[in-house]
């Protein structure tokens, strides 16, 4: 018996699978590699092992050792080599195993990768993607739980994004690889395999632009802006506040450089109150930048000073104490109360 | 190939070395007179290394260069007027005057860029070599760097990656004996920097960097090996910079006698003597040929200065251009950003 022709609904179902953030990143890498033979994956243990967090699982088996390169432990060499590949037409995706290991590559990223286009006025471009698992909450320690995204967002010439859900994980990976600018993708490692965050990803959908923030929950009492691993905390806070009759608007910043603060300004002009949440230390950070720009753009709308809920201004603490360091439901709600009762 | 007995090659080598020297002298002069800004790292005294090394390369081959990179740029075939315009911050410069002395890149001649970060270009050269190998090409990448780079982490990472992946890269060290004020005698615990090559399982040789012929021989040998899939090599060329490290250098760390002794080993004078019959072989060039090379170099540099000076200055109105890709630029494969 001949199979019935697929209806539009079936077609969409065939292109839509429910998956975790980690699997969505893996699928995004896979789709980009299928679409463009110039896309390469390189990094420590990314081949047979599939990466420490298994984000590159199966890619070397399917695309070969020449497109998924296991490198020695040499972050400066990895990023520098990727730049050389990129100026010669390839699109390398580097995995930095943990965010704390990125600093040997900081020179290549800030001195070369970020500046190459400007320095040569576009004669050379380096479309390199650097994937960085970041943030805490996995019972690890310093160098394995940190949030250095502000350092990179400070550098002109780099673009920086962070995903908080499987749909964004898939599309951000595809869009970052397609970008002609160097893009750093900060991936919330504690959410990689969260089954609670599993979501259907339609690979035929039209994604939002890479460098756009998004309102993910509407409300009118106060606004919470967050990104990456802090987004679920912000949403939990909004749910809890709803039970007390307070409706909070939640914005996923998504793009950290350039920031897309238009939706935040629009929201704050309605709510008059803003809480910014991030695991990173607060001093001279992305949360400082958001607060500064909101006071500049929304001065007469603010009913309270911008509140920030962040990691402390300390090195990352030992695993047993990390729950005190990371923004949690209570701290976010406390900040919301502060803003509302100002 | 013998540079000193074949007239065409002898002329090319001599003209290249004179062009580098005249270019550097002109830059020195313009800077001293306040006509040029920023900082300059001059390669006077080191002309034989880029000249010999680049003569071992073919069209399509690549180089990465250093903060002391004018010689590499010239030897690889750059246009002098676009170079001079770049140093003078003119819109007609290689990088519209934004790169300056330390960051000239010339895609047309395979110059992937000079680099203000010591050893910064070494892993980039490895990556360009990996790109060649992945495409199944036969091009070779020469990565120039100084003695100071050999102690930088990026150098070790880049050389090791090239070694384990058998990449077509030739690492050419211009050992001019000083990283600014730090002498190699104090910065290394090995007799020759080429010894470092053994630690990466690649061939390493130390040669007289003031003789374009010996530089050529060593680099040509390494290029042949690289082109035939034999992987990277390390060539250490011993030379000396006559001028200070940069414009602020008062030469407090070396003696007048030491500088004078190296000036007596002037690579250009020695080469002129060799090509006009100073050696055992028949002279390749006459005195008038030599004079012609000198005049050609002088005229080319003068013309470059004239052309560059007449060009429009880099425009502050476009200061924020090209930090990122233009929004409308087509993107290869996949989804648009």
TrEMBL record, chain A:
The keyword Oxidoreductase applies. GO terms for molecular function: magnesium ion binding; pyruvate dehydrogenase (acetyl-transferring) activity. Gene3D superfamilies: 3.40.50.920, 3.40.50.970. Its EC number is 1.2.4.1. Signal peptide: none annotated. Keywords: Oxidoreductase, Pyruvate, Thiamine pyrophosphate. Residues 19-194 form the Transketolase-like pyrimidine-binding domain. This is Pyruvate dehydrogenase E1 component beta subunit. SMART domains: Transket_pyr. It comes from the Bacteria. PANTHER family: PYRUVATE DEHYDROGENASE E1 COMPONENT BETA SUBUNIT, PYRUVATE DEHYDROGENASE E1 COMPONENT SUBUNIT BETA. It holds the Pfam family Transket_pyr. It is an enzyme of class 1 (oxidoreductase). Its cofactor is thiamine diphosphate. It comes from Prauserella isguenensis.
UniProtKB/TrEMBL annotation, chain B:
Its EC number is 1.2.4.1. GO terms for molecular function: magnesium ion binding; pyruvate dehydrogenase (acetyl-transferring) activity. GO terms for biological process: pyruvate decarboxylation to acetyl-CoA. Gene3D superfamilies: 3.40.50.970. It comes from the Bacteria. Its cofactor is thiamine diphosphate. Pfam families: E1_dh. The keyword Transmembrane helix does not apply. Residues 16-314 form the Dehydrogenase E1 component domain. InterPro entries: DH_E1, PDH_E1_Alpha_Subunit, THDP-binding. This is Pyruvate dehydrogenase E1 component alpha subunit.
